Amino acid sequence: MADRTIHANEIILNGVKFPIDGFVRESLISRFPAAMRIGAPDYANEQLLSNWIINDATGGLLIEEMDESIHQDRYWWSTCDTRFRSNILLPPLPSGPLTLPSNVTAPSIVNANMETDAAGWTGGDRSAAQYHTGSYSWAIASGSAYQDLVWDDAYKGKAFVFGCWVYCEAGGATAVIIIDDAIGTSSSKVITGGAAWVHIYVTRTLAATATRLRLTITRTGASGSTFADDATLVGQTIGTVPLFVNFNSKQYAACGYTLVKMNAGNTGYDPVGCFPTVITDLVVGSDGNLLIYLGDSDYYWWMTTAELFYNTDASLANKGLRWDGKTWKMAANGRWWYTVTPSTASPAWTAADASGGLDDYTLTPKSLDVYRDANGNLIPYCATTKGLWAYDIDTSMWVETEVGLPEHTQAGMGLVVWQDGIYVSGGLSVKKYIAAGTATLTEVGLSQDDGLPQLRSGEIVKFIKGYDEFFALIDSTYEGATSRSQVVSYDGTGWRTWWEATADNKNMYAGIVTSVNKHQLLFSTTDGVYSIPLQRTSRNPKKVAGYTYNTSGIHISPRFDAGTKAFPKLATKLTLFLDDMSATETVAVSYQIDQAQGALTSAWTSLVAAQTADGVKEQTFGTNGVGVVFYDIQFRLALAQAGANTTSPIVKGMVLSFLKLLGRKKAWTFTISTSEAGRVGATPKELTDALSTILSTNTLMLFTFRDGSAAADTHYVIVQPYSSFTAAGPNWMGQANLTCVEV
To answer: Taking the model in full, what pTM does it have?
Structure first.
């Protein structure tokens, strides 16, 4: 087999030496068809360059590795407003943290256990006739006993709760306890004679002009004494804000032991009432009062629309809801009761899960809501650490739905009914459940696609119902100490970010959409309560007068690889179209290539410095515009404003122009003359047969027209195209025109 040429005008192809006429003509060939176009083809009609056109980010976040055929409206992560096509804007401006009341240490009650004779109390006497604990109580045969505690002006405007055990002898004696601040009084419920110890409370927020803190125990009735024992006083104890409720056209929140109310200026909360322990739920009852649940061990309270407070003698109220004309309560283990009269001193609660309670299933109830069943009837649902359960009132039992989940400590913390489905969280997973004859279950959560950046990851702890979307609070403390918490929303199409914490490792707690003072989203964090304005009219910020923007936002595109990372591309130019720019409203662009893992805000290569002018901005890549070779590329847009917060720069569109590179390939064209077969020691027929073999060979063939002394002299090729001129009959002489193409 020939492997080298030693004479002019001959080549070796597929191990056969052929004579040729003239020269071998060498050329470079294109390995591509027409230019590749991603985006609107009307603006990508170039013959050489390809274009990636970005003008729509409405599909939402979570795409780091894009499929250009389906992810044109997606991005990886952003704090910008991306709800509207051809508009990447700064995020809304939050206000906060809103002011919360401060903790108050209550002054000590002298002789609170009533064990010391003639100490602390004015009126009444120590008595051994009855006692709750110890050996004595305080007997009041008529009138009142009171105590003025040591006064401090710091108590003005603060909430206190006074508790006391009372015993009323049969025959008509009654008892009521009172907080008196010299400006007004607040009274507990009235206890009538029953010859049993009863624990009663009263709460009052002292007037801003108060001058004293007097605790009074009053006895009335025709006969019999009232006994008091084991008095307590708790000052407002402020903690995190795990609960919000809209009630009587006002916005209230639970704050540790204290119920607080949004002030008229929307700048903070004022104390309304204080309770003996942490508030576990706020429920608008079926009788129109606000119920303050205090968990399993303590009695729950109710508040009237006039903000008068009364405690009941019922406990085991950890969570609750209003449904079917009744008020419902649930214990921490899932036990379940209802009543039609929740706002009474001794409400009658009826067990509602005798046939099958959640406490039978070794799980933890997390959230309650009302949604329809397969027949379209509204029923309660409970999200738990093991999935979603539905309540069947006909059988008085809880039934597991199709949303059964492996046990997860944070599962069920997010539960919301929005549009046609009920949504349940578990970590960053979100299950959408639609009840019907054939129920449907869909995963729509933030665990899909490529997920959130690790520096912005966490777990969902709350869903908040909105109008055109629902919101989710992502708590980064479940991820680690280097992640930041966020508020995101889901609109049925995709997820987007509304707010992120300014520091790592912040807890998220609760939220609500309210129209008290203004239409707004309220949410609570480690640092307090924040407010984000929402719109009742147009949702597009550019159509809303006085809309306010945050000072900065970043937007990170997916990684673009033109269909594959296997082959290089040459980035030549980035074209931006910008609007509403000024010296204080700017946009800058940076990039990273080839799977670089820069942080969200650092380790990127600057491409476009902060722009201040409207219109088109073109920026070439590389020194003197020679381009940058990449296998994949990702962009980071940094939007900023330092002027009036009612303006935002706008990125209307962006185009990356690039050249596809697959390495240069050569082709060689030449003419074989079989009539000169004798020059290579063959006959015309032998060369013609060799050509036939070459044309039917599907593998690459060795081709050389040099002496083979260098590796570059040998090529592996296919033949395309081919044409020939040949004589008829027994004459095999002729000419064949071949092109050998390097692959």
So the answer is: 0.88
